[in-house]
Amino acid sequence: MKTKAQIVEEILTRSVSQVLPSKNDLAKILASEQKLKIYIGADATGPQLHLGHATNFMLLEKFRQLGHQVVVLFGDFTAMIGDPTDKTAARVRLTKDQVAENIKTWKAQVGHILNFEDQENPAQIVYNSQWLAELKFAELIELASNFTVQQMLERDMFEKRMQDAKPIYVSEFFYPLMQGYDSVHLDVDLEIGGTDQTFNMLVGRTLQKKYHNKEKMVISTTLLTNPATGKKLMSKSEGGFIALNDAPKDMFGKTMALPDETLVQVFVDCTFVPMEEIEKMKVAMEAGELNPRDAKLQLATEIVKIYHGEIEAEQAQQYFVKTISNKEIPAEIVEFKVESESLKLTELLASSGNAVSLSDAKRKIEQGGVSVDGEKILDATLLLEKSFDGKIFKIGKLGWVKVRF
């Protein structure tokens, strides 16, 4: 059993890049009986949250278990403005209906990590449209008067756009102001966010001082990146991420596809495996005593266990070993009933859930990702007829479907 001091030390080091104003200041508060109000925010720019978001939710849950009040802010209003962070062009603005659709299942996704049902200290959810949509123009002017254009232009992405003669919209300056005002309205003591959100979080720190004469603290967490390339592992805008609501088999397979050099960080940032055990695995892999594939099997099992439970995790592992490693056809394959005399192959992939669109299906076929009875199909215009009844199609490494006419 870890002591409170050990728990606090891990909270302030695991997946943490920086603590402002200082780690020591926050450590002293956490060692006392003082209770903090802590929040993280996520914009509803898509229907799925991913493992990159999970890092912050896990940290927030640890604070909740220590008795602190924790709040998850779903940015339904700020999503309609668009955060310019790390963008070389302005984000596409979303409509109110699009945001509402995106946010439908977020509580269920986050609920695998955060406890919203605890009787004594449940995690809370808020939506920033409740106050941002009500701000009057005079209040916006007052808000904006706390910062200069020069301060806003110091952001790297704005400097880059100016150099490339790309437009910077005035509305983009409002984004950090809106996020900063979230801190004021909620009157929080601490905000948690990725290192890419540091500028926005510090705006909130400035505004808390202005409006409430209060020192808001900030924890910036590490981003999931590939140490060999420096690129993000999880990016909704760039594609390629492990969603919190992925099916167990998909979640397991995507984890197994991660580069070996990312294993340690994903263990640290996306699981509850003790740091001592992770360090032992790291040493063993460096010494050649542990095969990275075996470590990855454990990682995939741990991740699926968090979101789907132990039984589903074990079944996903068995499925992966049999169908991917041993190249066996799974015992249970989804059957797709064709209601007409013929069906395009692209339509089969899209309608069976093995492609997100017809264009995605065409790409998979032309890149050699689709086969039937072990033979690749490269013709995206192929028309399936009754002669294909009972044929088993393999799509990528994980998708299987049997056609029935």
Q: Calculate the mean pLDDT score and round it.
A: 89
Low-confidence stretches: none
Classified in CATH, the superfamily of the largest domain is: HUPs
Shape: globular
Distance between the termini: 60 Å
Helix content: 40-55%
- What percentage of the residues does DSSP assign to strands (E)? 5-15%
Q: Output the radius of gyration.
A: 24 Å
CATH architecture of the largest domain: 3-Layer(aba) Sandwich
The CATH topology of the largest domain comes to Rossmann fold
Widest sheet: strand order? 1-6-5-2-3-4
Q: Find the count of extended strands (DSSP E, 2+ residues).
A: 13
Alpha-beta classification: alpha/beta
CATH class of the largest domain: Alpha Beta
The total domain count is 3
Describe the main β-sheet briefly. Answer: 6 strands, mixed
> Count the helices. How many?
18
In short:
The chain is α/β, with parallel strands linked by helices and 405 residues long. Helices cover 44% and strands 14% of the residues.
